[in-house]
């Protein structure tokens, strides 16, 4: 996987979500998703925006629930699910990122012989979720302190799910925390699992496969199963925001 170098290296502070998302080379991002199961969007958020979102964690009025991972066997750490309406920047990014990913999602389902096709607009997809009884928002803010980690998992939340999601690192590695690497594993039929450690800086986003993706083999496409997690935090505090495009039951 390679970083998207076709955009300027300055952050998008103050730029509308649609404009900053459109600045990336989506052909390159789609190739990385197809080839590796993940793709990095450098500096999607500015440091100021990262700190502003991280600071919401203690403000309970923004959230619908608070999860302590250890109580559920998810790992060690905690996170909060946002409630509707989402903060403007996160809601805007959720809407703006979806169209760039929907072609990948539909192509993957076609290659995996899955009948589901996703509408081109996120609002239409959310309407389908709500009609299926999945009406709870899924974007979340995660917080880790030393010793915390997130077990390998998949964020599905119901029968209807979008096959790609996005995580944005809000803290600066080496300054705010050490350890805590984003990890993606891929299990191929009759093969050893493959691990992908994705290096991120503050404000970088990673788009990645939620569940399955197709891989071309000598006899056509076959499905591989993916899970993601976070390695043990060694020091400091790490915040991440997750943008999941389907809603939950």
UniProtKB/TrEMBL annotation:
State the superkingdom: Bacteria
Record-given protein name: Proline hydroxylase
Species of the source: Bradyrhizobium canariense
């Amino acid at each position: 996987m390679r970083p998207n170098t076709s955009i300027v290296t300055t952050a998008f502070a103050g730029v509308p979500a649609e404009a900053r998302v459109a600045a990336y080379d989506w052909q390159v991002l789609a190739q990385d998703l197809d080839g590796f199961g993940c793709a990095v969007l450098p500096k999607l958020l500015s440091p100021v925006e990262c700190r502003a979102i991280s600071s919401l964690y203690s403000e309970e009025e923004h959230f619908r629930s608070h999860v302590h991972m250890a109580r559920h066997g998810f790992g060690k750490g905690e996170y909060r699910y946002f409630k509707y309406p989402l903060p403007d920047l996160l809601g805007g990014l959720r809407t703006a990122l979806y169209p760039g990913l929907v072609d990948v999602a539909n192509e993957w389902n076609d290659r995996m012989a899955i009948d589901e096709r996703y509408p081109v607009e996120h609002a239409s997809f959310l309407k389908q979720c709500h009609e299926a009884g999945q009406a709870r928002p899924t974007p979340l803010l995660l917080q880790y302190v030393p010793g915390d980690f997130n077990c390998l998992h998949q964020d599905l939340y119901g029968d209807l799910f979008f096959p790609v999601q996005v995580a944005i690192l809000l803290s600066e590695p080496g300054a705010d925390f050490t350890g805590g690497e984003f990890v993606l594993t891929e299990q191929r039929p009759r093969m050893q699992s493959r691990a992908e450690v994705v290096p991120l800086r503050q404000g970088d986003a990673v788009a990645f496969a939620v569940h399955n993706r197709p891989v071309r083999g000598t006899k056509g496409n076959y499905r591989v199963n993916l899970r993601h997690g976070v390695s043990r935090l060694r020091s400091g505090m790490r915040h991440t925001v997750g943008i999941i495009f389907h809603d939950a039951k």
